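One such shown below:
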Amino acid sequence: MTELEEQEVDFGRYRGLLAARWWLPVGGLLLGVIVGLALAAVGGSVWKASALISLGQPFSPTGGSPVASFATNPRAVSEIIRSESALKEASRASGMRLGNLRGHVSSGQVGGGTGAAARSVTLLQLNVQGPKPGKVEAAANTLAQIVVEDTTASYVGTKIRTLQDQLKSLQDRINIQQQTVTQYQTATENQGLAPLDRLALVSQLNGAAQLLGQLKDEQVTAQQQLALAQNVESATIVRKAAAVKTTARSARTSMLVAGLIGLLLGGLAAVLWDSLARLGPRR
């Protein structure tokens, strides 16, 4: 008898054993499905909190062109939220154990694409999973705030502080110049002035008023640049995290895996039934 014929005989014998004791694999399948369903039911639930973050888009000091920096790199956010210092801060703020945070924090682009489209995406979703809804919310929001602070503190943060200082200086100059214009206006109303003196005061008043107008124009420009830096260039939390309950184990997957294991074990028992019976206790 050839090797191929021997294999065919063995397969035929196995099929016969499975057919004779079909109830073993079927029972194993049913038992596995029941066990899988029970495991999914008692496996508990976890909570997931997701915060939506805009990384912003920094521009050059004049606002003419975008500026590339680590702050707009989604990979930088992933590294920030997984850093030990950020996790410790989130742990303190939320009450979650540090070990429960490690490996349960993630981030990903929202609406990402490829090529140029991927580079233009600045929206990120930051996720935290854990057993307590209030704690995962607090941890996610703390990490989101850390991302905003870390990515805005460098170039855009310096730009905002510079514009705020500039606006304060402009306001001081405007106040002084307004007083000067008021003084000239009062002086020109003096009826005892000689015509040449009045003409000189009017000329000085026009110059002071023109300078006041220029300062106010600079103020408006600086206010617009500050609004751009704060609302567009800076990273912001678009929506705070809110916890949502999720099943820890998928019932369908648990039933499928356990049922398959039960089917295989039942089939193995059917094939080895005779051998196991011979090895049983003898009188």
Q: What stands out?
A: Confidence is low (pLDDT under 50) at residues 113-119.
